[in-house]
C-alpha cells in the first residue's frame, strides 16, 4: 500500500465542477434530498439551474458533488447496474437503498485514483423505509440519519448538528433542509441558484423547488 | 530549444484560379540556420491533377509522402482510377487524426482538379487533421504568416492560368524573402484540365 | 487499421522534455448557442477558426450533422469536434438502421458523453447538441470531460459569456420560430463583436417537430470584405523562370467493340 497518493483536491484543467451544497435527511415517512443548482467552470457559472438530484431507481436518488463528468458517469453506471439487478428480482420487489449505495461505494473505491466524486445516496424501500448513505471521496461508505456534503456543507455542520431531530414531520424536515441549504448558499461562493428537493416516501417521488426570493429572507 | 515545425524550414502555398489551380513551395532544407539542401521539393503528385504539399519536420514530410504514395497506389489498384482531390483530403485528415495523441509535425495542403469535371479544389490541414476548406488560397510552413499577408492582398478570384502563376509566384517569393528558414529556390505547378506546367523559379540564394 | 495510433507519442513527449514546443492545433475559439421554442429548437455558430493569433479559416463550418434531424455545434479543438462528431454520426446511423427507428437526441448525447469521458478530457470537444425525434425537441450540451447539461438556452466557447448575456436578457418561454432564430443570431453576433476568438459570419440550424431540419449557412454576413480599390495583377513575365516542364494530360477513350461470334478452335 505504500506509495499510493491521492490528490483529493485536484480537478483536471477546465473541468466542470459541482462546487456544491447537498444534503439528504431521514424523516418520519421516508427521506428528503436537497441541493443547490450551481455548476461552475473556474469563476464562471456554467449552469445556474442544474439538477444535482439524480434518479437511480424508482425511489432511490443520489446527490452529486465534485466533478460533473465523473459523478454523471458513476450515476449512469449505477443506474444501469440496478436496472439489470431489478430485472432479476421477483415481481413487485425493488432494489434497496443499501444495495444502490454499495454499488456506488464499489465503483468509487475501485476507481478512487481517477475520480473526484462525493456522493450522497438516499432512498425509500419497503424493507428499511428511508435511509441515507454518504460516499465521500476515497470510496468509503457511511450510513447516517442525515448527510451533508459539498463545498458549502462546511458552513452548516454546526447548525445541522444542533437542529436535527429524529423522526421529523415532512414540513418540518423541508424547513430544516431549506434553512440549512440557504445558509450554505449564503456563505459558499460556489453554491447558489435555486434549492431543489426530492421527497421519497411510500407514495413515491415528489419534487420541490424554492427560488431565491423565498429562501433568502 | 525550438519548435519541431521550424527546424528544417520551408513553406508552401496553393491558389484557385479560373478552371485551374496552382501550388508552389520553396526548395530549402535546413538544420536550424544551416542550409543543407536547395533541392528539397515539398510538393508531391498523386495522379495527374492532384497534388499534396507537405511542410514542417522533414523526416515527417518524407514519411508521410511515402505513406500517401502507398495508400494512393493501393487506392488506384482497388478503384481502377486515380484518387480525387476531395478523397485525398479526407485520407490525409484521417491519417493525421490517427496520430491524435502523437502527431506528425507537418502542415499539409492539398490542391487539384476533379478528374472528370475539372472542378478546382484546395484545402489545408493542421497537424492533427482538421481540414480547412478554402475557396481562395491556402498557406503553410514557416513563412505562413508572411504568406497570409501576401495572399490576402495579391489574390483575386478567377485568374487565368498565366496570371495565377505570376500571383502565386510573387506571393511566395516575397513571403519567403522575409523568412530566414524558407527560400533557396522555388517551384510552382500550374494545373489546368489538359496540362500540368512545372516551373522552377529564379530566386535569391541567401 | 482502425482506431488511434500512439506510436509517435513517446517520440513527441521525449522531444518536449528536450525543450521542443508541442504543436498547436486549430481551435475554434468560438461562440456557439442554442435555444428552444415551442415546437422546435435552433442552434447557431460563428465561422472563425484560429491557430494561435492567426485566423486560420474565415468561413469554417461549426454546425455538424449527427443525423438528418439532430445537429450539433462544436467549440474547442477543431479536429476533435469534427472527428468525434463524424464517429458518433456514423454509429448513430448504424444504430438507427439496426433498431429500425429514428435516432434520438438522448442517444446521440449518451454516445458522445461516454466517448468523451473515456478520453478524460484529452479530446477537446465542447458541443451543443440539438434536434427533434419521436419524443420531441431537445437541447443539450456536452463538455470535453464528458459532463452534460440540459437547458432551454445554452452557450459554449470563448464567446459564451457575451452570448449568454444576450440570451439571459432576451430569452422568453413563448418565442416564435423567427424570434428564436433572431435571438440565436444576436447572441452569436455578440460573440463576433466582443470576443477575439470569434468572428466572421453566423450559421444557423433550425429543427422543428414534424419538419426537416433547415441549415442556414451564412445566415448573417456582417463582415463582408469590401471591394479592393486596386488590382495587384502582375505583367506576364514578371517572375523569372529557370526551367519549365510541361506534362500534357490526355483523355483515354475506351470503346467497347461488340462482335457476334468469337473465333474459337473447337476442333482440337
UniProtKB/TrEMBL annotation, chain A:
<comment type="subunit">
    <text>Component of the proteasome complex.</text>
</comment>
<dbReference type="GO" id="GO:0034515">
    <property type="term" value="C:proteasome storage granule"/>
</dbReference>
<dbReference type="GO" id="GO:0005634">
    <property type="term" value="C:nucleus"/>
</dbReference>
<protein>
    <recommendedName>
        <fullName>Proteasome subunit beta</fullName>
    </recommendedName>
</protein>
<dbReference type="GO" id="GO:0043161">
    <property type="term" value="P:proteasome-mediated ubiquitin-dependent protein catabolic process"/>
</dbReference>
<keyword id="KW-0645">Protease</keyword>
<dbReference type="InterPro" id="IPR029055">
    <property type="entry name" value="Ntn_hydrolases_N"/>
</dbReference>
<dbReference type="InterPro" id="IPR000243">
    <property type="entry name" value="Pept_T1A_subB"/>
</dbReference>
<keyword id="KW-0539">Nucleus</keyword>
<dbReference type="InterPro" id="IPR001353">
    <property type="entry name" value="Proteasome_sua/b"/>
</dbReference>
<feature type="active site" description="Nucleophile">
    <location>
        <position position="20"/>
    </location>
</feature>
<dbReference type="InterPro" id="IPR023333">
    <property type="entry name" value="Proteasome_suB-type"/>
</dbReference>
<dbReference type="Pfam" id="PF00227">
    <property type="entry name" value="Proteasome"/>
</dbReference>
<dbReference type="GO" id="GO:0004298">
    <property type="term" value="F:threonine-type endopeptidase activity"/>
</dbReference>
<keyword id="KW-0647">Proteasome</keyword>
UniProtKB/TrEMBL annotation, chain B:
<protein>
    <recommendedName>
        <fullName>Proteasome subunit beta</fullName>
    </recommendedName>
</protein>
<dbReference type="GO" id="GO:0010499">
    <property type="term" value="P:proteasomal ubiquitin-independent protein catabolic process"/>
</dbReference>
<dbReference type="InterPro" id="IPR023333">
    <property type="entry name" value="Proteasome_suB-type"/>
</dbReference>
<dbReference type="InterPro" id="IPR001353">
    <property type="entry name" value="Proteasome_sua/b"/>
</dbReference>
<dbReference type="Pfam" id="PF00227">
    <property type="entry name" value="Proteasome"/>
</dbReference>
<dbReference type="GO" id="GO:0005634">
    <property type="term" value="C:nucleus"/>
</dbReference>
<dbReference type="InterPro" id="IPR033811">
    <property type="entry name" value="Proteasome_beta_3"/>
</dbReference>
<dbReference type="GO" id="GO:0043161">
    <property type="term" value="P:proteasome-mediated ubiquitin-dependent protein catabolic process"/>
</dbReference>
<comment type="similarity">
    <text>Belongs to the peptidase T1B family.</text>
</comment>
<keyword id="KW-0539">Nucleus</keyword>
<comment type="subunit">
    <text>The 26S proteasome consists of a 20S proteasome core and two 19S regulatory subunits. The 20S proteasome core is composed of 28 subunits that are arranged in four stacked rings, resulting in a barrel-shaped structure. The two end rings are each formed by seven alpha subunits, and the two central rings are each formed by seven beta subunits. The catalytic chamber with the active sites is on the inside of the barrel.</text>
</comment>
<keyword id="KW-0963">Cytoplasm</keyword>
<comment type="function">
    <text>Component of the proteasome, a multicatalytic proteinase complex which is characterized by its ability to cleave peptides with Arg, Phe, Tyr, Leu, and Glu adjacent to the leaving group at neutral or slightly basic pH. The proteasome has an ATP-dependent proteolytic activity.</text>
</comment>
<keyword id="KW-0647">Proteasome</keyword>
<dbReference type="InterPro" id="IPR016050">
    <property type="entry name" value="Proteasome_bsu_CS"/>
</dbReference>
Automatic annotation (TrEMBL), chain C:
<dbReference type="GO" id="GO:0004298">
    <property type="term" value="F:threonine-type endopeptidase activity"/>
</dbReference>
<protein>
    <recommendedName>
        <fullName>proteasome endopeptidase complex</fullName>
        <ecNumber>3.4.25.1</ecNumber>
    </recommendedName>
</protein>
<keyword id="KW-0539">Nucleus</keyword>
<feature type="active site" description="Nucleophile">
    <location>
        <position position="30"/>
    </location>
</feature>
<dbReference type="InterPro" id="IPR001353">
    <property type="entry name" value="Proteasome_sua/b"/>
</dbReference>
<dbReference type="GO" id="GO:0005634">
    <property type="term" value="C:nucleus"/>
</dbReference>
<dbReference type="GO" id="GO:0034515">
    <property type="term" value="C:proteasome storage granule"/>
</dbReference>
<keyword id="KW-0645">Protease</keyword>
<dbReference type="InterPro" id="IPR023333">
    <property type="entry name" value="Proteasome_suB-type"/>
</dbReference>
<dbReference type="InterPro" id="IPR000243">
    <property type="entry name" value="Pept_T1A_subB"/>
</dbReference>
<dbReference type="InterPro" id="IPR029055">
    <property type="entry name" value="Ntn_hydrolases_N"/>
</dbReference>
<keyword id="KW-0378">Hydrolase</keyword>
<comment type="subunit">
    <text>The 26S proteasome consists of a 20S proteasome core and two 19S regulatory subunits. The 20S proteasome core is composed of 28 subunits that are arranged in four stacked rings, resulting in a barrel-shaped structure. The two end rings are each formed by seven alpha subunits, and the two central rings are each formed by seven beta subunits. The catalytic chamber with the active sites is on the inside of the barrel.</text>
</comment>
<dbReference type="InterPro" id="IPR024689">
    <property type="entry name" value="Proteasome_bsu_C"/>
</dbReference>
<keyword id="KW-0963">Cytoplasm</keyword>
Amino acid at each position: 500500500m505504500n506509495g499510493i497518493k491521492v490528490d483529493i483536491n485536484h480537478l483536471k484543467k477546465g473541468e466542470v465542477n459541482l462546487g456544491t451544497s447537498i444534503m439528504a435527511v431521514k424523516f418520519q415517512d421516508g427521506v428528503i434530498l436537497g441541493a443547490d443548482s450551481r455548476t461552475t467552470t473556474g469563476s464562471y457559472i456554467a449552469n445556474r439551474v442544474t439538477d444535482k438530484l439524480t434518479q437511480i431507481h424508482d425511489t432511490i436518488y443520489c446527490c452529486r458533488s465534485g466533478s460533473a463528468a465523473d459523478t454523471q458517469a458513476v450515476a449512469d453506471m449505477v443506474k444501469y447496474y440496478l436496472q439489470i439487478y431489478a430485472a432479476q428480482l421477483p415481481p413487485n420487489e425493488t432494489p434497496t437503498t443499501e444495495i444502490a449505495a454499495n454499488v456506488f461505494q464499489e465503483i468509487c473505491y475501485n476507481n478512487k485514483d481517477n475520480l473526484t466524486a462525493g456522493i450522497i445516496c438516499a432512498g425509500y424501500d419497503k424493507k428499511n423505509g428511508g435511509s441515507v448513505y454518504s460516499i465521500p471521496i476515497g470510496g468509503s461508505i457511511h450510513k447516517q440519519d442525515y448527510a451533508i456534503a459539498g463545498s458549502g456543507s462546511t458552513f452548516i455542520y454546526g447548525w445541522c448538528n444542533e437542529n436535527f431531530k429524529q423522526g421529523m414531520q415532512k414540513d418540518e424536515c423541508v424547513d430544516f433542509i431549506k434553512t440549512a441549504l440557504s445558509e450554505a448558499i449564503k456563505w459558499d461562493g460556489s453554491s447558489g441558484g435555486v434549492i431543489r428537493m426530492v421527497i421519497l416516501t411510500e407514495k413515491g417521488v415528489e419534487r420541490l423547488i424554492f427560488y431565491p426570493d423565498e429562501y433568502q429572507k | 530549444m525550438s519548435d519541431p515545425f521550424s527546424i528544417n524550414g520551408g513553406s508552401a502555398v496553393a491558389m484557385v484560379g479560373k478552371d485551374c489551380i496552382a501550388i508552389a513551395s520553396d526548395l530549402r532544407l535546413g538544420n536550424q540556420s544551416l542550409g543543407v539542401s536547395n533541392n528539397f521539393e515539398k510538393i508531391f503528385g498523386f495522379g495527374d491533377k492532384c497534388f499534396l504539399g507537405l511542410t514542417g519536420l522533414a523526416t515527417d514530410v518524407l514519411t508521410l509522402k511515402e505513406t500517401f504514395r502507398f495508400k494512393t497506389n493501393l487506392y488506384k489498384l482497388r478503384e481502377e482510377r486515380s484518387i480525387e482531390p476531395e478523397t485525398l483530403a479526407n485520407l490525409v485528415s484521417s491519417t493525421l487524426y490517427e496520430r491524435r495523441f502523437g502527431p506528425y509535425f507537418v502542415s499539409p495542403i492539398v490542391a487539384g482538379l476533379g478528374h472528370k469535371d475539372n472542378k478546382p479544389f484546395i484545402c489545408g490541414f493542421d497537424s492533427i487533421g482538421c481540414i480547412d476548406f478554402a475557396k481562395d488560397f491556402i498557406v503553410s510552413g514557416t513563412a505562413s504568416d508572411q504568406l497570409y499577408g501576401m495572399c490576402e492582398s495579391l489574390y483575386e478570384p478567377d485568374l487565368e492560368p498565366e496570371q495565377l502563376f505570376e500571383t502565386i509566384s510573387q506571393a511566395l517569393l516575397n513571403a519567403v524573402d522575409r523568412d530566414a528558414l524558407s527560400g533557396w529556390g522555388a517551384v510552382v505547378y500550374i494545373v489546368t484540365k489538359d496540362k500540368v506546367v512545372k516551373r522552377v523559379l529564379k530566386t535569391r540564394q541567401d | 487499421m482502425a482506431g488511434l495510433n500512439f506510436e509517435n507519442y513517446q517520440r513527441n513527449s521525449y522531444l518536449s522534455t528536450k525543450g521542443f514546443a508541442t504543436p498547436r492545433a486549430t481551435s475554434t475559439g468560438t461562440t456557439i448557442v442554442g435555444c428552444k421554442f415551442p415546437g422546435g429548437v435552433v442552434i447557431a455558430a460563428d465561422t472563425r477558426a484560429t491557430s494561435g493569433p492567426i485566423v486560420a479559416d474565415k468561413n469554417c463550418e461549426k454546425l455538424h450533422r449527427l443525423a438528418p434531424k439532430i445537429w450539433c455545434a462544436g467549440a474547442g479543438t477543431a479536429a476533435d469536434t469534427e472527428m468525434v462528431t463524424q464517429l458518433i454520426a456514423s454509429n448513430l446511423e448504424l444504430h438507427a438502421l439496426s433498431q429500425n427507428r429514428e435516432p434520438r437526441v438522448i442517444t446521440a448525447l449518451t454516445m458522445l458523453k461516454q466517448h468523451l469521458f473515456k478520453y478524460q478530457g484529452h479530446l477537446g470537444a465542447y458541443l451543443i447538441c440539438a434536434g427533434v425525434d419521436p419524443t420531441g425537441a431537445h437541447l443539450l450540451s456536452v463538455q470535453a470531460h464528458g459532463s452534460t447539461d440540459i437547458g432551454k438556452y445554452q452557450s459554449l466557447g470563448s464567446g459564451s459569456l457575451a452570448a449568454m448575456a444576450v440570451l439571459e436578457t432576451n430569452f422568453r418561454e413563448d418565442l416564435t420560430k423567427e424570434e428564436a432564430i433572431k435571438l440565436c443570431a444576436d447572441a452569436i453576433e455578440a460573440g463576433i463583436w466582443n470576443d477575439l476568438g470569434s468572428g466572421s459570419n453566423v450559421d444557423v440550424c433550425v429543427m422543428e417537430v414534424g419538419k426537416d431540419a433547415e441549415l442556414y449557412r451564412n445566415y448573417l454576413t456582417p463582415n463582408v470584405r469590401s471591394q479592393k480599390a486596386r488590382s495587384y495583377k502582375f505583367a506576364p513575365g514578371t517572375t523569372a523562370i529557370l526551367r519549365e516542364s510541361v506534362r500534357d494530360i490526355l483523355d483515354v477513350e475506351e470503346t467497347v467493340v461488340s462482335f457476334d461470334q468469337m473465333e474459337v478452335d473447337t476442333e482440337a
